[in-house]
Specification:
- The protein is built from 24 helices and no strands.
- It is an all-alpha fold.
- The chain has a domain of about 375 residues: Sodium/glucose cotransporter (Up-down Bundle), CATH 1.20.1730.10.
- The chain starts with 7 loop residues before the first helix and ends with a helix.
Length: about 525
């Protein structure tokens, strides 16, 4: 089975999509005049925009191609990274949203300076900037270019990478986070609609019989709890790795949390994150299961990366192919624009601007940069980062397996970060020295473990390593904190957990606007999915 040629109507649909996105981004740029506009969208986002933007920013081309390909070749176990996102989103909504928004921070590392000191802020910020550009942005461009080459074989890799970067970089640099969020919302809708149509038509080939789908796949294909020796995701990784990786991604990752920081209030931020938890269940049904549906429809596909492209071009009629391809391009754009904007924000706010905290628990208000300077530096930084990512992206093809290992490098940076945020918000004795040395020691130990794994000396799955390193980092954090002076009472009072954080008395609204009600529904839904696909 081959990937069919693209019809003229599909080109028209894709062109209309690209023109629309650019027009929206440039229109919004006319209203971007301050640093808060550029980096936080003027703090005006409602819960719906936040939820759609979180969903779109998280779904990349590697997610789309990888999830369907994995479901075709090894089963649906990788879907847990999607629908189990509700767990860290719930934690973030209940505890960290009020801490972040009441502190008036612009960057997540800025919270570390308030809770601990500037050393931790700059250390974490530098790591985040590097991974955002070299791994996330460049990786998104490279993966996106490879996917487009499947449909359009005449495309040149480096030219495609630069074209994608310039397109996303233009509306991101001029329109800032507001342009990113509004275009993300459109991209999320296109993505959901396009993939839903494809899923429906593949399911129709099974006469809408779930038993037929299950019987057409190998035994265990629809199980998410796998044996200890499973190469994809053993059950230990499901328990020890996935929740911590999810917490890092949804609670401390600047390019994800930045749209939450731009919420108009705590109520909308919380509802947006919980709504995103519901949206993250959708990929199981429109991106993962379609890969399994393709087993009987297109047997014998050797390269799993071609499962989705083959299904798109062989199942959908002209016009709808263009719509789904627009969704794929949307996935590229939403990941690239988000990482560019967040990395630019980190550089300007954490390294260029001199803006010390005014008091414990609140970000500083006396910036060393004027609003015009902040916008100028933000746009310049975005363009520079865009060029760096576009130049690096084609080089990834020379690394082959090493690039896959770089994806596992997240298991190095995640554990100490999880500890200083998650443990740090509950362990009130945790201090600046404990946080800084947890970052340093935890990262170095993670690098050693990574090297030992590549040499074949350490054979545990990298998701299991995350759990082990979280335990070690927690020990470092507690020991060092107890050997050095305690944080001030004011810092502890403002920036650690207290039961009043969960309260909604100052948010108003009816019961159906209470984030806690929707949290209960989300937990029940995730538990049901786990039981069904156990």
């Amino acid at each position: 089975m081959q990937i069919n040629e693209i019809a003229t109507l599909d080109y028209v649909v894709i062109a209309l999509y690209l023109v629309s996105v650019m027009a929206i981004g440039l229109y919004i740029s006319r209203r971007t005049s301050t640093g808060e506009d550029l980096f936080l969208g003027g703090r005006t986002f409602g819960w719906g925009l936040i939820a759609l933007s979180l969903f779109a920013s998280n779904i990349s081309t590697t997610t789309l191609i990888g999830l369907s390909g994995s479901a075709y070749s090894t089963g649906i176990v990788q879907s847990v990274y999607e629908w189990m996102s509700g767990i860290p989103l719930i934690i973030a909504a209940a505890i960290f949203v009020p801490l972040y928004l009441r502190s008036r921070i612009t960057t997540i590392p800025e919270f570390l300076e308030l809770r601990y000191d500037r050393r931790s802020r700059l250390f974490f910020s530098a790591i985040t900037i590097f991974t955002s550009i070299i791994v996330d942005t460049a990786g998104g461009l490279y993966a996106g270019a490879l996917v487009l080459q499947l449909f359009f074989p005449s495309l040149v890799l480096w030219q495609t990478c630069f074209a994608l970067a310039i397109f996303a970089g233009l509306y991101t640099a001029f329109g800032g986070l507001k342009a990113v969020v509004y275009t993300d919302a459109i991209q999320a809708i296109i993505l959901i609609v396009g993939c839903s149509v494809l899923s429906y038509m593949l399911f129709a080939q099974h006469n809408f019989s779930w038993d037929s789908v299950v019987n057409s796949a190998p035994v265990g294909h629809f199980s998410v709890v796998r044996p200890l020796d499973d190469p994809g995701l053993p059950w230990t990784g499901l328990i020890l790795g996935v929740p911590f990786l999810g917490f890092w991604y949804w609670t401390t990752n600047q390019y994800i949390v930045q749209r939450v920081l731009g919420a108009r209030d705590i109520k909308n931020a919380r509802l947006g994150m919980v709504a995103a938890g519901f949206l993250k269940i959708i990929p199981l049904f429109i991106m993962v299961i379609p890969g399994a549906l393709a087993i009987s429809a297109f047997p014998g596909i050797e390269n799993s990366d071609q499962v989705l492209p083959i299904a798109i071009t062989n199942v959908l009629p002209a016009g709808l192919v263009g719509l789904v391809l627009a969704g794929l391009i949307s996935a590229i754009m939403s990941s690239v624009d988000s990482t560019l904007n967040s990395a630019s924000t980190l550089i300007v706010k954490d390294f260029v601007e001199v803006n010390p905290p005014t008091q414990a628990g609140f970000a500083g208000s006396n910036s060393s940069l004027s609003e015009a300077e902040m916008v100028k530096y933000g746009r310049i930084t975005t363009f520079v980062l865009m060029l760096i990512a576009a130049a690096w992206a084609p080089m990834i093809q020379n690394f082959d397996g090493i690039w896959i290992y770089l994806q596992q490098m997240f298991s190095i940076i995640v554990p100490p970060v999880v500890v200083i945020f998650l443990v740090g918000v509950f362990y009130k004795r945790g201090n600046a020295n404990g946080a800084f040395w947890t970052l340093v020691i935890g990262t170095l130990l993670g690098v050693i473990l990574f090297v030992l794994a590549q040499l074949g000396i350490w054979t545990l799955h990298f998701t299991s390593n995350v759990g082990i390193m979280v335990a070690i980092s927690t020990l470092v954090f507690i020991v060092v904190s107890n050997l050095t002076p305690a944080p001030s009472a004011e810092v502890v009072e403002r920036l650690t957990f207290r039961s009043s954080l969960l309260d909604v008395s100052d948010e108003g609204g009816s019961w159906y606007n209470d984030y806690r009600f929707w949290i209960v529904i989300l937990i029940l839904l995730m538990a049901y999915i786990l039981m069904v696909f156990w």
